[in-house]
Write a structure and sequence with these properties.
Order of helices and strands: EHEHH
Radius of gyration: 15 Å
Shape: globular
Helix content: 25-40%
Strand order of the largest sheet: 1-2
Number of strands: 2
């Protein structure tokens, strides 16, 4: 248990559901947890569920839990990167290769 702490989990798209649960249940009194990740950049084997994707379904309506989602318009890198991200999103949608959310 981590009390009086600010805890960040980065690249959470590559956690398993079990790892995500283990991490989130370490929250102690006076602490905050921030989980970051990009569900379009999951590096897990396709048959392995992403803890970040699954946690949204499990905790999405839980009081005290909030999710902030960014889109291609939020990319602050080179302008071409926005178009690349959008092209990959469209391709995944058209080919049915996007991961289940």
């Amino acid at each position: 248990t981590l009390n009086d702490s600010f805890i960040i989990l980065d690249e959470a798209q590559n956690t398993s559901p079990e790892q995500m649960q283990m991490f989130l249940t370490r929250l102690g009194f006076g602490s905050k947890i921030v989980v970051t990740g990009d569900v379009t950049q999951v590096d897990l084997p396709r048959e392995q569920a992403s803890g970040l994707i699954q946690v949204q379904n499990i905790l999405g309506s839980l009081d005290g839990v909030a999710f902030v989602r960014f889109g291609h318009e939020d990319v602050v890198r080179h302008k071409l990167v926005q178009r690349i991200v959008e092209a990959y999103r469209k391709h995944a949608e058209e080919t049915g290769t996007q991961r289940r959310k």
